Amino acid sequence: KKLGIALVGLGNYSTNQLAPALQETEKCYLAGVVTGSPPKAEEWKKKYSIPGRNIYSYDTYDQIKDNPDIDIIYVVLPNAMHAEYTIRAAEAGKHVICEKPMATSEEDCARMIEACKRNNRKLSVGYRLHFEPHNQRVMELGQQQVFGKVKKIDGAHSFVVSNDPDRWRLNKKLSGGGPLMDVGIYCVQAACYTTGETPVAVTAKFGEVTRPVYFDEVEQSVSWQLEFPGGAVANGSSSYNENKNFLYGEAEEGWWRLQPAYSYSGIEGRTSKGPMNYPQVNQQARQMDAFAECVLENRESRVPGEMGMRDVRILMAIYEAARTGKRVLI
Length: 330
Ligand code: NAD
Prior knowledge:
Layout: E1 3-8, H1 12-21, E2 28-34, H2 38-47, E3 55-56, E4 72-75, H3 82-91, E5 95-98, H4 106-118, E6 123-125, H5 133-143, E7 150-158, H6 172-175, H7 179-195, E8 201-206, E9 221-227, E10 233-239, E11 244-251, E12 254-258, E13 269-271, E14 274-275, H8 283-297, H9 305-324, E15 328-329
Parallel strand pairs: 1-2, 1-4, 2-3, 4-5, 5-6, 7-10
Antiparallel strand pairs: 7-11, 8-9, 8-15, 9-10, 11-12, 12-13, 13-14
């Protein structure tokens, strides 16, 4: 049996990545949607042949508990809404995939994990790169010390926000923060999955604000340095005012580089031994199938809520370090 997934929030990521990916999945399918927009509901219903009974609004959301077609709820809302919609999904008896960043505070992450545990539901975070072959190779190179111990990691993930200053990404209440929360998180994740460790301390600083009309609530850019218990040091940076996308790792006897590292497709990599030859895959399809498998086989996700919470803790430590100028212990 294929498990039914309902997408909550039909914005850019649901529309252009998740719904198409759900046409390629083998263990799950697009069973329903939750949207505040009746025209969108109509459009999705037609386009994906979704039965009317599987279309919900934010007002009818909790009624999903009575719908056996829906096994998994996928929360694809602005960051600050993840906690509430994840907890309500768990209370409705559904397994949950929550987009990154898992929430805007560690306390919210803890409440989400607790709600899923209490309702005996599985929880995972939308960390698609754990299912991407080049990034998986980096995990192996670093964690299995293929080139010896990891010494240094460099990463950046940045893009230029377009000229709509009202976007939720620039609204601190909805986003929880700027580029760090949105895309810098990929570099933090990458440093952790390269080493297989959680950092113990961080220093950081905010960049200059050159477009104050946009960046009056969230940072325009931030850079940081994470210290790992095994001795590796990871430099990261993230900005909403330039385009960057790479991950570099250096070990005692070799190095590797992905560029772009975090995109939906077209990821390219090489190591000190030569080019990496791995296929491009549909990351989201793999990620959702892997979660469906966990539900079907009663296993934990490789990207569980606990990992999402650890990362939010690191993001908050980066903000604290940037704000205070001090080295912050994690
Ligand atoms: P988006 O702005 O395109 O979509 C957000 C959706 O939420 C919209 O449909 C909007 O109508 C709805 N919404 C409901 N209540 C809202 C409110 N109060 N304010 C604003 N919007 C509201 O955003 P997106 O790019 O689809 O991002 C959604 C989530 O997915 C974010 O958490 C983001 O970090 C995550 N995301 C993840 C990836 C990934 O690669 N894993 C990529 C893009 C986005």
